[in-house]
Amino acid sequence: MLKGIDPRLNADVLHCLCSMGHGDVLVVSDTNFPADSIARDTVCGEPLRMENLTAADAVEAILSVLPLDTFVEDFAMRMQVVDAPDEIPETQAEIQAKIDAAEGKPRQMIGVERFGFYDQARESYAIIQTGERRFYGCVMLRKGVIGPDA
Q1: CA-CA to 111 of 20 to 30 Å: which in 41, 72, 78, 120?
Q2: Which among 89, 99, 87, 102 is positioned nearest to 132, based on CA atoms?
Q3: Rounded to the nearest 5°, which phi and psi values hold at 27?
């Protein structure tokens, strides 16, 4: 245990988050996401796990140490619902609330079509698979910066 670090963040996840640089993308996925096969193409090369958490709980823990990129519109992206791209499932609404709380203001996630999401995930830094069993618990987070006075 470390003082001031959310205990939901395990050593592998902390190492990954610390190693990422400005602009790198992290995928947080549900249990149905093909994390193992897609993670082989990422910088990390294998999926990381936060298995006992919902996607929203994992995002909340991650955002306790990871700043989101404030310079781009695609700071956070969600997998669109097939045949209903504007629908926001409960899981994604919960994740959006965690992002808004971390940012201190509303900043909407951008929707990405399912197969486009898979393609972008292959180019990400890492994939963290959660224990989220509800559908569409998949998002991407782009790492921002921490200023010298923070």
Answers
A1: 41
A2: 89
A3: -100, 130
Q: What tokens were used for 142?
A: 């782009």
Does the annotation count 125 as an active-site position? no
Query: Quick count: other Cβ atoms within 10 Å of Cβ 45?
Result: 9
Per the CB < 8 A criterion, the answer to whether 56 and 109 are in contact is no
pLDDT at position 20: 98
Give dist(CA 144, CA 123) in Å, integer.
17
Catalytic residue among 12, 24, 41, 118: 118
In this predicted model, what pLDDT tens digit does every residue of 78-120 receive, in sequence order? 999 999 999 999 999 999 999 999 999 999 999 999 999 999 9
Range 98-119 burial, b when 16+ CB lie within 10 A, else e:
bbeebeeeeeebebbeeeebbe
How far apart are alpha carbons 121 and 135 in whole angstroms?
Answer: 17
Nearest to 41 by CA among 122, 119, 106: 122
Indicate which residue of 30, 57, 69, 136 is catalytic. 69
At a CB cut-off of 8 Å and minimum separation 6, what does 92 contact? 78, 109, 136, 137, 139
Residue 22 is a catalytic residue: yes
**Active-site option among 15, 22, 74, 100:** 22
